[in-house]
Structures are given as structure tokens and as C-alpha cells.
Amino acid sequence: MKPSGSKSWLVLCFLFLFLFVAGWQIFTASFKSLPGPWPVAQTAWEFLSDPFYDNGPNDKGIGTLALYSLGRLSLGYISGSLVAIALGVVLGLNQTLFKALNPYVQILRAISPIAWMPLLLYSVQSSGWTAILVVFMASVWPTMANTAFGVASIKKDYISVSNILQMHPVSKLFKVILPGAGPTIVAGLKISMGSAWVAIVPAEALLGSLGLGYFVWNEWNNLSLTSVIFAILIIGVVGVFIDILFSTMARRLAYVD
Amino acid sequence: MELLKVEKVSKHFGAPATKGQICVFKDVSLNVAEKEFVAVLGHSGCGKSTLLNIIAGIETASQGYTYIDGKQITAPGLDRMVVFQNFALLPWLTVYGNIRIAVKAAHPDWSRQQIHDWVQRYIDMVGLTGAENKRPAALSGGMRQRVGLARAFCVEPRMLLLDEPFAQIDALTRGVIQDELVRMWQETGITIFMVTHDVDEAILLSDRILLMSPGPEAQIKEEVIVPIPRPRARMTIIEHPAYYPLRNRIIRFLSSRGESRQTAATVSLVA
């Protein structure tokens, strides 16, 4: 038996990758209609060798498209998260309000953000803004629920300390309440980011606004399945990088009681 | 000069109209003079921590009044700092940050340099020099309570409220910190109100001990003055002729659950 330490997981990790690619190859070899790993790799190389080309409004490099999606994502996500944290703090501090609003929040969070799209599109009359608002709707609920929970479950002693010191409400918020609920809030932000990233792809696809989702749909219309598979991989990889960002943030805000 | 006055304070838990209401303690009255060190001794569950929280202003009395310096207590204030049994340090801040937050709250108009000097002064006073940048989780119980004491002393309150401050500290460290508390108490001329269930600790530290009967409807049944002169040392205090009679009397009170012996009041033990 090898010691269950350091690098054995990495070996296993690459083994799984190999098995996946091999399985994919065998599968596509028997069903000739789907592209195998090799043509996808070729397409990937093509796209990635020139990620930021610009041939007019509807033909841009994959890097540019990813930046479009990320820009929309950031705008909708950051504004959604700010609203969510503000509301969450209010609900976390006021249990009566929390109980009164909770049924509605539960209904709202059960609605897929994509379902809002027609209504939003009709209201703002702009596909770009609609995509941002869809991301906004996807971001709000998990962060809000977690913030309210995190704030409500801050140890009573910490609040007592801030009361005994007669801290100014603003410094109480930034020095005690937000750091106290910090780890729970970040967990919510992470879930929100997941659902925002999941929502932006269909939103862009349906709205036809430039971005990764649009790219997937466009390549489907071109019947270029290799590009579709490549785009799926890119969406996954970007998602992983976003997740790593949040794990780093969570580690920074974590505290031991 | 009388600093703290507690007048017929009672505390009930549960809604007042219902029959399930529990009276934790009833008609508790006490006075603490300026620069005095008073301890309340009682079984766990007699509500002594609740009494302390009412004086701190973080809980409210069901009946009765509390005054500090003649003013009625309705809310927490920087004139009454609490030292908690479980330290209640903010775990996301360092030692320095935990003390700084208190200094900043007490002196919002001070410059960065003034605040820094003040924080450092109290870190040095409790012997935590060098541990400024550690988080509470990296400290032993004794060191955590040093931070708690520094945080309380640094705002220069009129009164220190100690809620079983040494209960979670190992016995060897406890003695050292008790000595330091006495030193800081004498240097600063502060008034201390302490709640404890440790008889030896109460005798070693306080001028006067109030004995509380067990709850429900707990009351302060007896008051004893500790006739042992200061400075008191843990090693020599037991040799003082008044030590064991005093200790036995308190133990007898606590084991009789506060029912009997109401007659022998303070007189016999006052030196």
C-alpha cells in the first residue's frame, strides 16, 4: 500500500480523464453522428489560437465572447448580491419581518430566472439588459437566504460586546455583523454565482446577445457539433475558475470560534 | 461613595400572564461602593449571571431598579464593561484588533497614533506583548481572558462586571491571572462586581461576598465581609486565622442550599 498522501489523487484524477476521453472515443466510434475527441480538439485549437479576433458584429473570438458573458455576469451578479446582502441583513436582524416575508421568498426562489425573461424583455426592451437582469434574479435569492441565516445565527455574545461598547451602527455592521456572518454569506454568494452562471447561457442563447450562450446556439444552427462541444467545455472551465475564486475568498473570511 | 445600587430587582422568564412563568430571583437588593470588590457567590442556575447582565444593561429586569452613580440603568454603557466567562472575543479579529475596536468605540475622535499607543499600552499591561497579531483561536484560555481584561480595562469604565471570568481557565494559569486582576484593580482604582461559584476565588479576591440561595426565587440571603488584609497571596491566605471559619461558613451555606442559618449575619466575621 502506498501512503495515502501527496500526489496519489492527482494520478487518479488523470486516470479518470483518460478513461473519459477513451470512453468518449469508443462511444462516438460506434455512433458515427457525434464528433469524437480528436475533431473537438482540432476545433479547440483553432478557436484558442486566436481567441480575440473580430470579424464584424456577429463573428468574434471565443475569448471576446467569454468576456462578454463575464461582463454581463459581473454586472448582474454584483448588483444582485449587494441587494441580497442588504436585504439579508435586514431580515436577519428582524425575525418578525423574516417570518412574514419568508413564504414569498420561497416562491420567488423556486422560479427559474429564465422564466422571467419574456416579462423582463417586454419591460426593458433590450436583450443586453434583459440578460443582465436574468443574472440579477438568479443571484439574489441564495445570497439573501444565507445572509439572513448567517446574521440571525451570530453568537449573542458578539452582539452583546458591540452593545456594551456602544458601537456606532455603521461600524457595528462592518466590524461585527458582516464579519460574523461572513462565511455563511460567502457560501450563499457561491451558490448564487453557480446559478447565475447556469442562467446566463440559456439567456444569451435565447436573446441572441453576444456571449458564450449565443455561441452555443449559433454553432448549433450552423450544425457544427464540434464547436458546441468545445463551447460546453469552455463554459465548464470558466465555471471552475469562478469557483476557485470563491473558495479563496471563503478561506480568507473563515474564522474559528 | 456608593457607585452601584440594585433595588428589589426580580427576573421572570416566560410571559407574565401565564402560569408557566418562572421567577429566577426575587427582590435582590445590593450596593457596591466605589473602588470596592464585591463577589456574588451561588449555585449555577440561581440567576447570578442574569443579575450581572441586568447591571450591564444587556438584559432587563422584570421588576425593580438598578442605578449607577445615581442614574438609572436602562441600556449598556461604556461605564460598565463586562468580562465574559467564554471570553466573547471576536474570532475574526486579532488580539490587537479586539482591543482596538474597544478603544475606537470609546474614543472616536482620537488619531490613529493615539489609538495605537493606547492599545499597545493595554496589551503590554496584560502581558500579551508579542501576541498582537494572533487570532483568539490560536491562544490558550488564559491568554484569551487577558485579551478580555485588556478590552474591558482599556475603555476605563467606572465598573468592571466579571461573569465567572476564570471558570474556563486551567487552575495553574488561573492563579496568575487572578493576581494580575488584583494588581490592575489596585492600580486603576476601578470598582469590580464579580459573579462566581468558586469559594476560594471569592475569598481571595473580594472585599465582600454576597451569598445567593439557589433558584427559583433565588435571593441574596447573607453577606460576609472578608476580614483578611491585602495583599493576599494564594499560598499564605489559608494560614490566616479567619480563612477557614469563613470558608466553612460559606460552604455550609451553599450545601444547606441556603435554607437555614439566616441568623448569623455579617457580625461574627467582621474583624
| Number of separate strands of chain A | 0
Instruction: Describe the sheet with the most strands of chain A.
Output: none
From the N-terminal CA to the C-terminal CA of chain A, the straight-line distance is 38 Å
Stretches of chain A where pLDDT is under 50 for at least 5 consecutive residues are none
Q: Which bin fits the share of residues in helices of chain B? A: 25-40%
- Proportion of helical residues of chain A: over 70%
Based on secondary structure, the structural category of chain A is mainly alpha
Distance between the termini of chain B: 21 Å
Compute the CA-based radius of gyration of chain B. Answer: 19 Å
Strand order of the largest sheet of chain B: 6-7-8-3-9-10
Question: What is the H/E order of chain A?
Answer: HHHHHHHHHH
Report the biggest beta sheet of chain B as strand number plus sense, adding barrel if it closes.
6 strands, mixed
Sheet-strand content of chain A, in percent, reads under 5%
Q: SSE order of chain B, as H and E?
A: EEEHEEEHHHEHEHEEHH
Any overview of this molecule?
The complex is a heterodimer of chains A (257) and B (271). With 257 residues, chain A is mainly alpha-helical. Chain A is built from ten helices and no strands. In chain A, helix 3 runs antiparallel to helix 4. Mean pLDDT of chain B is 89; it is low at 260-271. Chain B has helices spanning 48-56, 95-106, 112-125, 141-153, 171-188, 199-205, 234-237, 243-255; strands at residues 2-13, 22-33, 37-41, 63-68, 71-72, 80-83, 159-163, 191-196, 208-212, 220-225. Chain B is 33% helix and 23% strand. By secondary structure, chain B is an alpha/beta fold. Chain B contains eight helices and ten strands. Chain B is globular and about 55 Å long. In chain B, strand 9 and strand 10 form a beta hairpin.
